[in-house]
Amino acid sequence: MSGSELKADLWINEYISPWDIYTHGVTKILAYQKTPFQEMYIVETGAFGKGLVLDGKWQSCTVDEFIYHEALVHPGLIAHANPRSVLVLGGGEGATIREILRWQTVEKVTMIDIDGDVVEACQKHLPEMHQNAFEDPRVELIIADALKILDTTTQTWDIIISDLSDPIESGPSFALFTKEYFAKLKQVLNPGGYVMVQAGPISPPEVQDHARLINTLKAVFGQVNSLSAPTPSYGRSWGFALCSDAEIDLRPQPESIDKLLSDKTSGGCRFIDGTTLLGILQTPLYIRQAIAAETVVYTLEEPPKFFGTGAMA
Question: Is the dihedral of CA 89, 92, 95, 97 positive or negative?
Fold first, then answer.
């Protein structure tokens, strides 16, 4: 290519739509396994550091994962202001629990992931992400089907974070983006608690899936807000949903949030502060319009199936 110098011979192509591919050049494969649930790669890339890839879809990269994980974790914990117990569904890299453990008020974190092989590989190859969070005595790791645990548990939590891989048809997660699943989360949520959900890409060609997830959550929770953050290694910004039956303050004072984070966390955030939180809580017009026009509610009978996977080339 004129004017360009390509430095990788191996590429992972993620299929974003029938017409679009996002590609990262891979310099080294650190781990590969076809687990009982999905195909896993852990790789080194030229620009974004180490990355976890499941079924050909990028989960996170060491260079920019802090944006995704801070946006996923902290809005709910800030809204609660005094979280003591947190449930994480998914989150194999350990970066989600890493962010939760910044909160000094947190006494217990329960992480449930269906794929122990992925969690073990991340513990070995992605220490930059988990930063030994799995060794924290506050963390309980359960390798199991989240739906089965939710059906039988008697525990409840202040915060629930759903950090699952996208609901592609061949993957293990598509049933965990449905009204029935979200209703199970509500049953184990303490009064005044908050749920945060990774809710897919928000680029205009893909926004319908995000809008349908928000609409599905609105069928369960009294308050649902769409928020988003830039995620460069995904090739587009990513959406999240903050949900509760309690009030969600969409106009927090940045100075008050900064003081809360200073008083109740160990610090170290690189993305979230009072100003950033205020910004990401403001849902862009085109997303609000898509949500307002949406009528579909995802159910176990009619679950979501996002487009595509990816391939090594």
Answer: positive
List strands edge to edge, sheet with 50-54.
57-61, 50-54, 39-45, 20-34, 10-17, 310-312
Q: How far is CA 114 from the centre of its chain?
A: 15
Q: Where are the domains of the chain?
A: 10-63, 65-305
Separation between Cα atoms, residue 179 and residue 65, nearest integer Å: 28
The whole-model pTM stands at 0.94
What residue ranges in 46-173 does DSSP mark as E strands? 50-54, 57-61, 85-90, 108-113, 139-143, 157-163
Contact (Cβ atoms closer than 8 angstroms) between residue 87 and residue 188: yes
Look at the domain 10-63 and name its fold.
Spermidine Synthase; Chain: A, domain 2 (2.30.140)
Q: Both ends of the chain: CA-CA distance in Å?
A: 18
In this structure, what DSSP letter does residue 133 have? Answer: G
Q: What's 65-305's CATH class?
A: alpha beta
Four-point Cα dihedral 140, 127, 242, 55, nearest 10: -100
Q: How far apart are CA 25 and CA 48, in angstroms?
A: 9
Instruction: Give the pLDDT of the chain (313 residues) as one tens digit per residue.
Output: 455 678 888 888 888 888 888 889 999 999 999 999 999 999 999 999 999 999 888 999 999 999 999 999 999 999 999 999 999 999 999 999 999 999 999 999 999 999 999 999 999 999 999 999 999 999 999 999 988 999 999 999 999 999 987 665 544 556 788 999 999 999 999 999 999 999 999 999 999 999 999 999 999 999 999 999 999 999 999 999 999 999 999 999 999 999 999 999 999 999 999 999 999 999 999 999 999 999 999 998 887 776 655 555 5
- Active-site amino acid positions: 163
Residue type, 178: T
